[in-house]
Specification:
Elements lengths: L13 H20 L3 H4 L2 H14 L5 H12 L6 H10 L16 H6 L2 H11 L15 H9 L2 H14 L10 H7 L5 E2 L12 E2 L20 E4 L2 H9 L8 E4 L15 H6 L12 H7 L1 H4 L3 E5 L13 H4 L6 E5 L9 E5 L14 E5 L3 H4 L3 H8 L6 E2 L14 E7 L8 H11 E14 L12 H9 L3 E11 L2 E9 L2
Length: about 500
Amino acid sequence: MALPHSALAPSGSAVWREIATRSARAVTHLAERGIPIREILSPAAIRNAMTVHAAFGGSTNLLLHIPAIAHAVGIPRPVVQDWIAVNKVTPRLVDVLPNGPSYHPTVRAYLAGGVPEVMLHLRCLGLLDTSVLTATGRTLGENLDTWEKSDRRERFRTLLADRDNVAADSVIMSPEQARARGLTGTLVFPTGNLAPQGSVIKATSIAAEVVDADGVYRHTGPARVFYVGSGRHRRFAGGSNSGRRCDGFGGNRPARDGNGRDLSDHQCAQDPALWKACRAADRRALLRSFYGSLCGPYRAGGIGGRKLPLAKMGSGLAKAMAGRVYVCGIGSRCLYQGKVLIDVGCGSRPVLDYFQQGQKFFLDPLLADYVKIPAMETHWQRHPASHRFCLPAEESVTDLYDRGDFVLCWNVINHSWDPFRIVEQIRSYAKSGAKILLGTDLCERPYLGHPGIKSKPEFLRLIEQHFRVVKRSTRNAFPTCLDIALLLQKP
């Protein structure tokens, strides 16, 4: 959905204004002809975009954007086999940072002709469907015919030669030139038991000296799975990464003990007393570390005695660990079965989904927008509309007063101008004896994003006026920022 020779234009340059003018006229033209976006964003157009991406040697970001765009317009999303097929037949034609070999800045690719120039070469190779409709209201083939003969093409190529003394054909090359210069594709998509649904590697980041004579990098060695970044970072920092090992990550960061060691979900569940030493890293990890006291023990089974708690996520990495697989799930005895759970300021993906039992209610001022996000639509359909309240945390939902058996409020009160009001609302939602999981971060000086609470003592006084503190954890997220997590109980 971009006009010819508009992508890659240098930021803030005069050409931006010219592109904006042309874009406005194109939108008006499409509206007058009654051409909707869905007629332009076709499966063939998606494959063309994947082909151009491969020819440029683009980054892995597009592997997120293309499926999202396809899903939004209701057409099949490309899978790993599609990416493999496109990258196998498409040569890289562009020599820009960070791929090399000459490492031209991106602006030179724009001056050399940009996307339409690359498409001319791809058309000659028969790799594009030139019959697709474009944002100009014309077919891709018609656009390329116009570009090939345009004064704009010659003007920009001349500008590149005059200003940088660089020939356009040395930045965007013909297939023959690219092959002679040794340009290779930038992305590869390994599949196998470590990544059953595929993976992606930036091939140009692999050192040339480890690539075999046939152009293939072969890596053989034992597999190690790190469920947290800290374990992997310690390997690097300690210089203990010797040998050819296959390392991978799985899951979110768990809590840590008083010595900074990672605590698994299983450990926290089996021994809730570990919470006294926990320094939870984020919202999800914090909730997992509370499982032992909130949701009952895990039901677990294993093979070979090797405990991999996050194998419950179906991780191919975990399943590849030499057959030693440990499967965990929430125990059948759930303390909140049939209870009422309330998430105040739930966000787009509420943490209450970790609770497989209970009647759940959600409050958030942007909830009406979250349920419209295509990627979240299916998720929110699991929760009745009557359980979703689109309003700020400071406002009241009187129907929920004195109903909550468990109330969650995470990183909400620190963003409010009236945190006292939010705490009062939480107290109103909780019934007597209910548990409340509350978290916030406190900065040395309030600012626009964190206006309400000015200090840890002030925050604790506010809490202790309304609740009994069952468990407490604090950690320094940054030198000037303190994270506080509290498990509370309403008297």
